[in-house]
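Course assignment 3, question 2. Fill in each field.
Student: A.L.
Task: Predict the tertiary structure for the chain below.
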Amino acid sequence: MRKFNTTGTCYPEDHYMVDITKRLDDIVNRVADGEYITINRGRQYGKTTTLYHLAERLKNDYVVFSISFEALGSNNFKSKETIAYSFWEQIQMTFEYVNISCLQDVVKQMISGLLSTYAEKKEIPFEIFEKSVSDICAKSSVPIVLFIDEVDNASNYESFIELLRMLRNKYLKRKTVPTFKSIILASVFDIKNLKLKVRPDSDHQYNSPWNIAVPFDEDMSLHKDGIAQMLQDYENDHQTGMDISEMAQMVWDYSSGYPFFVSRLCQIIDTKKLGWNKDGFLKAVKMLLDEKNTFFDDLAKKLEDFPKMKELLKDILYNGYEQSFNTYYKHIEIAAMFNYIKDVNGNVRIFNRILETWMYNLFYTEEQASCRLYDKGSIEKSQFVEDGKLLMDKILERFAVHFNDIYGGNDIEFKEEEGRRFFMLYIRPIINGIGNYYIEAETRDRSRTDMIIDYLGVQYVIEMKIWRGDAYNTRGEKQLTEYLDFYHINKGYMLSFNFNKSKVSGSKTMQFGDKEIFEVVV
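Answer field:
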């Protein structure tokens, strides 16, 4: 029986997966054109799976040498001579265990003989290594294609840079010197940013010897139609009665097609038997955000390794900061390289709701110990739930009281930037352990933020905004009613931060057709 997979290569006979034929077609054409390609995507983005299925597509027309640096240690990279030996050793292991249909025995013998000659020291003189690449490519009756996966594990070492330089030189002389037909490097870090991996925030050089390669810029995220096809395969096997279109839309809405999150959400619903419906899906979202996994471990480390990138992300999340998407700005380039952000109409957006909510949770956890509003929410949380539902009117009114008591005398600019963040810190202990929340990215700016809270299957929509006059407030009320229509909810909430000296604080209920809006002015 097939299952959802989030570790290692996905195989269609063993796993539910999205069809990647179109992606493979594109790369096959590039290989045929003799392109050298780099595939740079974030962790668990489908790179290894793509390489495996690409090798299957190419195996009848090419010899495919597919190696990975994942398991190699520092001894393999201590010199260019040791990496030369490790290179052919990895390839020998490939054809010992995998049938490479087009690979001639004479080529196998050449590689085995080379390794045998230098087995004692496990070092091949580099000039001999260079010649062996051309000799083996010349001897093969069909072109040879080279895949190198997990390049990041080698990029700390100067010996790897030497390997790339050698392959680049052969590429430039390919009309007269035999070499690989095509080379594909797969990694998280862009090859030109090798030095960033060694010294993240110090001065660095863009000194890649791999400027001959064409980046693979095709979208590798999973689209809604592909997710629906995967869920249909699951439904055919399990007959759950799910609404496939609805489920595919929810998975995409929260993941934006990031392969790991697509598979992990489905995996949680399946293995925990949560139910293929909205309630089961939202439970899976919460379980995913609460779990400790290698993806989130790596994300936390990256945020510490790149503090300026972290500050950029916090500014976008906390303050609605509008940043143009320009990858010549180093910290945007780094965040985009990790697939933490994406380009939406020329502006930076956090890649998906899962990442956004996880980052909010992390940043707020870092602050909660020193936040008096978080303490107030934690102390009072028991009085805000009745019959399994949040008493949102009361939550907003109590927040207003505490905010004015604690911050009423502080600087206006400080409050305008911080007010909405403080509400999110206040409500976090109230819903923590049961509910979840996210910020609607399309409405987040310096004046307005829409927050959606999921609590035991009930959604609450709260518009947090800075007062910009009666006309702006009226537009906000209209926008909120439209948003309530979208969520099929009849009651919404507004939290307005008014910093005018003549403001009138308090709460009121307004009716707009069949929609009710409860507003609190701070």
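Instructor remarks: The first helix runs from residue 21 to 32. Confidence is low (pLDDT under 50) at residues 196-207.
Grade: pending
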